[in-house]
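Hello again, I could really use a second opinion on something today. I've dropped the whole record in just underneath, so have a look.
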Amino acid sequence: MNKNVLITGTSTGVGLESAILFAKNNYKVYATMRNLEKGEALRKKIEEENLNIELLPLDVTNIGSIQSAVNTVIEKDGRIDVLVNNAGAGFAKTIEQSTEEEIRWVTDVNYHGVVFCTQAVLPFMRKQKSGQIISITSVGGLVGQPFNELYCGAKFAVEGFMESLATYVSDAFNIKISCVEPGGIATEFMTSAVEKTAVDGKLASGEYLPIFERYMAGNQQRANESKEQVYQTGLEVAGIALEVAQNENPPLRVRTSKWAEDFCMLKTQADPDGTKLVNEIKNSFL
């Protein structure tokens, strides 16, 4: 029996590539996105290659939308084997200059969406005594960076959420928990994050301006000098997510490139994949 997978945020980038790649590897894919009108690229691939992919509406900031999508999968298949929490959004602005609406939006899209999607699938995975939850996080979930405190804070929260789940649901209910941690990705996600930063005049003003200018210049320099090393394609990251899904004993954490590994080295060198810490917590608390 082929496994099914529910993937969030599949209109572009890593989500789009993941939907296609999982389908090509004999998964039944439920590809979700907030606005199905943005699914044209995926529909074209489905038709061209006869892929086993069904598009569903799912807005990760709306609990009712999440539950409706999950219920649809259960009604059709009676189970959910894999959840890939991919939906997310980049954001770079100082906390001082961010509005309440922006703060809530960044947190909802990047953290609360992961929590509520996971909450929705867990009862079914627990009942079937199997399942896998993979969250596409970021090196920003391990290392804080300038002008990214809101984004990094949300991704740090996802990492803590997933790590906590891994300490007890894996052994008790055979539900595997993993974080896939990319560095830079050359997709619309990156373009959107840059646009949200550069277009907003409030960010590049006042006492933050010289710091911001150095930050942007450094980003550009790194991109020019080592684009191939820093920026991965969505397909490359999707490939790592597929490897994790196919792993019988997947790690809690996996960086998706050498650059990402090196960038997080000071945080991860004692326990690169998170396994030691999870086992230590299990031994201490359970």
Remarks:
- The chain has one domain: 4-285.
